[in-house]
Amino acid sequence: MNTIQNQTFDEERALYGSKDLIVRDCSFDGPADGESAFKECENVQAIHSFFNLRYPFWHDHELKISDSEMTELCRAALWYSDHVEITDTKLHGIKALRECSDVKLKGCDIVSPEFGWSVQRIEMDDCTAESEYFMMRSSHLYFRNVRMKGKYSFQYIEDSVFENCNFDTKDAFWHAKNIVVRDSVVKGEYLAWYCENVTFENCKIIGTQPLCYCKNLKLINCEMIDTDLAFERSEVEAEITTPVISIKNPLSGSITVPSVGEIIRDIPEAGENIVTVLEQ
């Protein structure tokens, strides 16, 4: 491995095509405003470095980034790259991760609208994120101890697991398929509409009109807080441990709840004996 240390780069494609390279304590910034510093690279490590220019890591293989910062001007930082590890790093540019595969993030701070689109096989541990349309159309996600705030997250994702997470996000998990969420808090409006084969286990669900138009939806030992008009036109098996404001027109399955303010059945398809109220 060759090492470059304590240098500043601002030219176009500064380290294009590099292989077996360690970059330490370097800055990618300056008046030349050059793009694509590490394009088409392989086996590169960036350690304690600063990125203030566009598109630094495109078409890279075997990439490690640690203890670094990507500013809001470092837009579209990682695209079309694979076997990537990012630790203890700030990713603050828009569209920071796209069309990548086999990615691991740990201890990162993400502030990036439209982060993580069309990514395959990503693991995220102990990270925080602020984003819109977070992780859209991605698959095989495994998140642990992730705190996320934003809008429209996890739309069209597939085959993913989330554990011990906290999501404050509107319209999460729309059209999601084959998802498990465990021991987590999910807060926001209109949760998981049109999803299929989604399970929430030991979760706290907060917000209006959740879980509508779902197929093969399961809730296992879940709390539902400030939830009204839940389960509209859904196929659902649910064990709920807290009172629900209202349940509207579930189509099939079984819902057990300690109490419910109102059960609405105003379409012919609504099942008659789906909801079991334990106080009755």
TrEMBL record:
Gene3D superfamilies: Single-stranded right-handed beta-helix, Pectin lyase-like. Signal peptide: none annotated. Pfam families: DUF3737. It comes from the Bacteria. This is DUF3737 family protein. It comes from Candidatus Fusicatenibacter merdavium.
